[in-house]
Amino acid sequence: xxxxxxxxxxxxxAFGNQLxxxxxxxxxxxxxxxxxxxxxxxxxxxxxNAAPILHLSGLDVTVVKTxxxxxxxxxxxxxxxxxxxxxxxxxxxxxxVITGLLRRADxxxxxxxxxGFIPLGKTCxxxxxxxxxxxxxxxxxxxxxxxxxxxxxxxxxVLQIKGEKEQPVFAVTGLRWGSYRDAGVKVSKYWYxxxxxxxxxxxxxxxxxxxxxHEAVLRYLGPTERPPEEPEEKPSRPPLYVRIYRRxxxxxxxxPKEIPQDVAPEDWEELKLSTIELxxxxxxxxxxxxxxxxxxxxCIEAETVSKGQFVNRGSQKMRDxxxxxxxxxxxxxxxxxxxxxxxxxxxxxxxxxEYEAMPVEVKLLPRKxxxxxxxxxxxxxxxxxxx
Length: 387
Prior knowledge:
There is one protein chain. By secondary structure, this protein is an alpha+beta fold. The protein folds into 2 domains: 1-151, Probable inorganic polyphosphate/atp-NAD kinase, domain 1 (Rossmann fold), CATH 3.40.50.10330; 174-225 and 265-367, Sandwich (Tumour Suppressor Smad4), CATH 2.60.200.40. The chain has 13 helices and 18 strands. The strands form 4 sheets. It has a 6-stranded antiparallel beta sheet. It has a 6-stranded antiparallel beta sheet with strand order 14-13-11-7-16-17. A 4-stranded parallel beta sheet has the order 2-1-3-4, with helices on both faces. Helix 3 (42-56) packs parallel to helix 8 (137-150), helix 4 runs parallel beside helix 5 and helix 10 packs across helix 12 (307-319). The mean pLDDT is 85. Its cofactor is Mg(2+). One of its GO terms (molecular function) is ceramide kinase activity. It comes from Charadrius vociferus (Killdeer). It is an enzyme of class 2 (transferase). It is found in: Mitochondrion inner membrane; Mitochondrion intermembrane space.
């Protein structure tokens, strides 16, 4: 582990030793660290493996430690200008930071700030997309921190999930509602059963009424065509005389105003569903940089599942929560409204965080945020797209 840390620090030192003009300020990096992640070990993991790399790289680093759940959302509202945002924690910390970021009044400006993710939590779904798999935790953290310095980014989709009264919540992975999610939350209760705890949690949940049904009405719109990429560099401003000439030409061009055409009504489709589990997921897990359409995947699983299948599939769902089993109905949509019957109890899992189940509107914000990724993973994605 010490050899890995030393090698990563030497690589970071090369970035720190680069000369910059005296007129150029240092790049500011704001780190949102959740010390409670990974059963309270996150602070130690960050200070040992990530902090030295960031300081050696020549960044002006500010570390903001969160003291309680939901604090990151409030801190993001007060955050001043920064060049990089770094999230050090797990899925819950990512979800809090991006929700706070996109709730800002000036989110159009702040959503262009690139985001780094240092995986320190118990569940770090995004790390599978952004960084190569590694069995060594130190290597995984140092790889993620070095990826921030290398500067390669990929655009990720975001889901905007809005209830009737609440402010919207934003997610980069997706939303789950159903029996597998409910059983998965209770796995840690059976810690004393060791490797059998997952099967035990799903087995005991079958003692409730069976088959377990979750009924709702789903209205949705189909995929949307992806607009062309905006150029990153803005064209240079034309000379003053050209701008004056253009303004005068626009002023004197007296064209009759066109009558606005009626906008075509949106083609909503409606579906009554009864399912054991419903999931709405982004495409971030299998990122395709050359995709021509933007959509989220809605998976409606059949309710006709035997108790044995439920227990076996539950273990699979713990490894890959948004897997869509055979016999499920899969829908591609850019926007959907989930209407639940009155008196519906239970919870949604939004990026592995628990929220009360209620009627919601889910809207896809395609390529909304840019996350730093390992250059090898980006090259792999482009290579896969070409093939």
